TrEMBL record:
This is SalK. InterPro entries: HTH_67 (IPR054058). The lineage of its organism: Bacteria, Bacillati, Actinomycetota, Actinomycetes, Kitasatosporales.
Amino acid sequence: MTTLLESRRCYQALNPLHSLIYFAPEAEEEFTAAGLRPGRMSYFAGRSAAMGAVGPGTVTATFFNFSPALVAKHIPRAWELAAPAAVLDARLRAVDRALRRLFGAEALADPALAEAAELAGEAATACSAAGRPLYAAHAELPVPDQPHLALWHAITLLREHRGDGHLAALTAAELDGIDALVTHTATGKAFTPEFARASRGWSEEEWSACEQRLRDRGLLDAEGKPTEPGREQRHQVEALTDTLGHGPYQHLGEAGVARLTEIAGRLAQTALANGAFPPGVFATR
């Protein structure tokens, strides 16, 4: 039987293979060619297009830790420039180009990649759509034919499934979007605070006000680090997230999870070595 820890390790091995698209230059090239404006519009439209031409409230709710004001600058304007179907096509072209560059011909031709696509796809068949809007939207998209794209699609389903569950866990802990962002960066195991604040569209004043609220709740200390109650809260959030996201990996089984973790880890290392993420994004302490 697959344990929660094994499920989390598999997710952690898979996640960089999805997330790299948010940093790949190919993404902005394809999105702007489709009509979108450079920058955050491409991200908001690219990730939400599976839900259709939704408004800023829906994007803010499902993405969770972005400033509503930042989202409203780009949505629904994006849908006036490019239809969701065109955005989805552009996204898949960007994924294709980015993975070919980051994996290289040898990894693309490796039968292990196709094996990973099959394993991740099988795991995704056990995802539940109940209460998971981003997962449900992506689950209605067709599975690409090429193994590297099929793998990315399956990883996307697993990621959004777990992500939707994570938002439920955060809400249960009475953390809103900026609360979640500040408490996560405070652990030193996520984005740097500077990158997180700027990329999510929060002002320095909003960030400082949130830190003070969290101090008043006893979750951060005077230096902005998690207190013991703060660490316990994050532990509970992550534990509930693990539980809510466990189903697909439990369905795949211990041997399948171990093999998928192994292959995904190798692919992620190859992508990282080839510059999948820019320096200064993630905390190192």
